[in-house]
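Sample entry (459 residues):
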Amino acid sequence: MNTITTNLGAPAEDATHHSPSRATAWLLYEQVALQAVRIGSHITLAWFLVPDVFGIVGLSQAVCFTALMVFDLGITTSVVYHPDGENPRFLGTAWLLQAMMGFLGTTVILAAAAIIHLSGGLAGFAADSAWGATDLLPVVAAQSVIILLVGLRSPSAAVLRRRLQLGPLAHINVIASIASVVITLAWVLITPTLWAMVAGQISYCAIECVLTYRLVPQSQVTIQWDRKIARDLFVFGRWCMASSSITAVANKGDQFFLASILTTRELGIYTIALKVIVLIMNPVERWSSHVLIPVFVRFRRNVAEAPSRLKLLKLRILILGALVAGFLGLVLIAPFMVQLVYNDQFHDVAWLVQCLGVSGFLIAAGLTKERILLSTGDSKRNMISTLARAVCMFTGMAVGYHFGGYPGLVIGLAFAPLPWLVILLALVDRYCSWPSWVDMAAIMIFGVALALGLFIMNG
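Predicted structure, serialized as tokens:
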């Protein structure tokens, strides 16, 4: 049997599982460090590179992200919630499946890029649109290796998430991020082209993949194939694949559509605005997946007890309060921030950040509640929720574009998540341990505070 290196450590839960507060502290350290590095990198790159570069690389990232999600069997989530998630036989089968899906995803992207290139490119799109850019296909082909690198990561990362031992993962992400930024900036100083950003992104995933095997206590897990375990992973994963595919479309559908009507320069400005929103969305998504799912799993074991229900209610109020404060501050300071740190090429970023910030708050509020479904193993309802979000997003885009063109589309995106939140409340009602009015109150507070803040600033 072949072996892989991972960090299973001792099996005793009381010795290996960390508290949610400790996990949150590690995640806070990670995100503060990562965001500081990313902010500095984004600002520096914006002064060296033209907006067109951000448009092409951002669109390529969207394509590869979609492929990554399409071939996602939810292996990490399975390890976190499954009773046998730390069993070496389970992990060996899960790793093999994950690696196979990563290889398949990269192969499909490379084959598609080759076929499109040999057939003369993406016919039907205007030459000046982002989809018509000549550099797009080579960049997509290069970035497709990221899918394979993600599939080859050690299963130790999933075990650490299951135990809420996020310290090693935080160190890995910070080290990989700093190294990739150094590579990107060095490349830009030598030759300021889009390949600097591509090299940085690939190096990040490669370094992260290697460190998941090297930066942890070592033990051996046999790579093997267990048909029963594989069947369990596929049963859970089939809905995860559907949900992940829809999530990718919901998250990147705006870029795919805008790439057909905007130039690479205009799409680049939109991409920069998205990167600003990601400064808050990334920590929210990582915390909700790394901490909330294991926390919900623990609470679900004794959810009928009053202390557990009260703790969940307090946790939800804290989450919503943090989201209101974070996104409200971002939306209100966006014009001053853009004027301070970006050059004149990116002045349109300000109003885009304000609109996308509203959408970001609504989506973040929903995602932190949607994790309840995955913590129960109800991947089917999670898929339905994701589908509802995608439908609402595209409906908002279509209505907005019909009545207001590009600006109307962005405004439609801002408010599109509202009907999805109503659907989500119904989907999680059977599992939820706090009243729905808590979420509704947070949305109303955000709306009133935002309107008041904009009135004062513009008055």
